[in-house]
Write a structure and sequence with these properties.
The chain is α/β, with parallel strands linked by helices. The chain has one domain: Uracil-DNA Glycosylase, subunit E (3-Layer(aba) Sandwich), CATH 3.40.470.10. Helix content is 39%, strand content 11%. The chain is globular. About 20% of the residues have low confidence. The protein binds uracil.
Length: 254
């Protein structure tokens, strides 16, 4: 680890920063996403300011309190049709956080996000980044399954938002990946089409956590021709992640 004193020494020596941890190598799983993808196009940085966050009851909860609160939630009608809530899974200190739309049938049954076919592809995408599924934290905009997998209603997403904001605050990731159009539009409070949200750096929540957007794996299963673009998004994310970690080692984000 590089502490503040070391950074000061290095800066005094004219060295901008020293980051001892090398980025994980891209793995063979990349081929699952797409073979021979071209280099990513230039990254357009369009980082918005922090959104205002209303004070709410979830803002001070710890992990266990939050999990219990979500499990008991009846703030919208989805509680009546769910088998169980799907809180989220993974490393609570993860540096990468993946946020999807809502649980599907399999997730509702198992109580874990992204465990169906789309989930398997998401796991491959995570592995293509050189990570394991258990290294990252995975959550959804909604904690309950909408009937027939319909799109979340704005009121449902609004009810769940405080839980998601608290999860992101507790994880405090270096980078958030918004998985799919619905997740991206909800996180970023926009109706901009996903094609225009990709390739940029957005921000979410009280601390303006950086967010990049990619296609939902369920969409990629239906449109395998788009996997190439999704691979470009992952390369963009990985490059950005390296930069953000370097900045934070230099005393930027904490
Ligand atoms: N799609 C999502 O967005 N989330 C899941 O958990 C499963 C499928």
């Amino acid at each position: 680890m590089v502490d503040a004193r070391q950074v000061a020494y290095l800066q005094a020596l004219g060295v901008d920063c020293y980051v001892p941890r090398s980025a994980p190598p891209l793995q063979a799983e990349a081929e699952v996403i797409v073979a021979a993808a071209p280099a990513p196009s230039a990254v357009v940085v369009a980082r918005a300011g922090a959104e205002s966050v209303q004070p709410d009851a979830a803002a001070d909860l710890d992990w266990d309190e939050l999990r219990v609160t979500v499990a008991a939630c009846q703030q919208c009608d989805l509680h009546a049709t769910r088998t169980q809530t799907v809180f989220g899974v993974g490393n609570r200190q993860a540096r990468w956080m993946f946020i999807g739309e809502a649980p599907g049938a399999e997730e509702d049954k198992q109580g874990e996000p992204f465990v169906g076919r789309a989930g398997q592809l998401l796991t491959s995408m995570i592995r293509a980044l050189g990570l394991r599924r258990e290294d990252v934290f995975i959550a959804n905009v909604l904690k309950c399954r909408p009937p027939d997998n319909r799109d979340p209603k704005p009121s449902e997403a609004a009810s769940c938002r405080r839980y998601l904001e608290r999860q992101v605050a507790l994880v405090n990731p270096t980078l958030v990946i918004a998985v799919g159009r619905i997740a991206a539009q909800n996180l970023l409070a926009t109706e901009t089409p996903i094609a225009k949200l990709r390739g940029k750096v957005h921000s979410f929540g009280a601390q303006a956590w950086p967010v990049v957007v990619t296609y939902h794996p369920a969409y990629l299963l239906r449109s395998p021709g788009e996997k190439r673009k999704s691979w470009q998004d992952l390369l963009h994310a990985r490059q950005l992640f390296g930069r953000l970690e370097q900045e934070s080692a230099c005393g930027g984000r904490t």
